[in-house]
Design brief:
It is a single chain. It contains nine helices and eight strands. By secondary structure, the chain is an alpha/beta fold. The strands form two sheets. The chain has a six-stranded parallel sheet with strand order 4-2-1-6-7-8. Helix 2 packs antiparallel against helix 9.
């Protein structure tokens, strides 16, 4: 019996946008995943404080993936609280499935700054999608660790989308339109809760 394949896509999702869900669907298709879990961070240690609350980000994620059968929201990092380290999440995963950690090429270049990055590389297969203006070369240190594990990075074909949460937050704060960037139900939620507005 084949191992169950589970994709893991972590992030701040502040807010979740159409590039996130498009990447999740692309990963499901290309990697033949049984499911993909979107894992919102509680308090990412490498970035400024988040603009939306934990429950709001969970709500927006659930709205964004409604009706997409293979996508799930995994709230483990928010439930754990505190600073968010990927290795803590991975060490809590159930044994058995084959796990794929989905990341962009920009994150790949920064991968060796992650807490216990070599242990992360040993626990999951790394699947890398292209982002605008990014190359897919792994840092030399990561390459060496992957060779010792007899693994390679899985390249995930993904048509680049020039969408970023920081740009969406800037647009919302300035009262500018966000059509084509957010799922309609997420856009409604943001408007109803007056998220990302100045003042």
């Amino acid at each position: 019996m084949a191992l169950k394949r589970i994709g893991l896509l972590g992030g701040s999702f502040d807010p979740v946008h159409l590039a996130h869900t498009a990447l999740a669907q692309a990963a499901c298709t290309h990697l033949g995943l049984d499911e993909l879990q979107l894992i919102p961070a509680a308090d990412p240690w490498q970035r400024p404080p988040l603009a939306a609350g934990a429950q709001q980000r969970l709500d927006m994620l659930r709205l964004a993936i409604a009706g997409q059968a293979r996508l799930r929201v995994n709230p483990v990092e928010i439930e754990r609280g505190g600073k968010t380290y990927t290795i803590d999440t991975l060490e809590g995963l159930a044994a058995g499935p084959e796990y794929y950690w989905i990341l962009g090429a920009d994150q790949l270049r920064n991968f060796c700054s992650w807490h216990r990055w070599a242990d992360i590389a040993a626990l999951v297969r790394l699947a890398v999608a292209q982002r605008p203006g990014s190359g897919s070369l792994a840092p030399r240190e990561l390459d060496a660790v992957l060779q010792s594990l007899d693994r390679r990075i899985v390249e995930l074909p993904f048509e680049p989308m020039a969408v970023s949460a920081s740009d969406i937050r800037r647009r919302l704060a300035a009262g500018q339109p966000t059509q084509g960037l957010l799922d309609a139900s997420v856009a409604r939620y943001i408007a109803e809760h007056r998220l990302y507005q100045r003042g």
